[in-house]
Structure prediction request, 230 residues.
Amino acid sequence: MVWGLLIVCILAIGSFLFYASYSIASGVYLKAFCRANTREKVVALTFDDGPDPIQSPFVLDLLSRYQAKASFFCIGEKAAQYPEIVRRMYREGHLVGNHSLQHKNSFPLTPYREMLADLTQTQEILEGIIEAPVTFFRPPFGVTNPTVGKAVRTLGYTTIGWSVRSLDTRGEPVDRIMKRITKQIRPGAVILLHDRLPDSVELLTALFEYLQANEYKVKRVDELINNYAL
Prediction:
């Protein structure tokens, strides 16, 4: 009986720790903004893992066509390689955020001092390009833990999560991704996309058509934070 109860407790603790790390909305290790508390039909578009020399400019063209502002969480080494694209993002009114230096699978396991150096270097790269402060952050893979939380608090970042995860990196057909997205969209949603994929523009076009047909407005994620506090 005692052993059975102990096993149940261990499994429950393991499940909680897994949820705490892999659900950015959990708020266990750090608070992340994942949606706005509003009934107004507004959403935020966020893009990870850029800049990409081929796809990012097309995504920016499409955002310009629809007169929409988005948020780009950039990888430091890519930003250093393609600074003109990051500069264009900022110049055209988009938010530029920190998404780590290399987006390594091992990032969540990085020791604190190394993680702090990683994020600081990325911040310096981005700020050197856009000549403005970079204070928004999205952790690679959305994974959090005590080390990530401590580094974010030390650097004073505002962490951005999501309420709609497109899973567009799976390589599925656009119509299937769209079904997944539209099932999750609610007023105040923060939508996670990527601007490095071959079908990024096709997916974004379909998403804009859906948003327009359903009378949604697109705002930057910091506007949602400022105007629709939870």
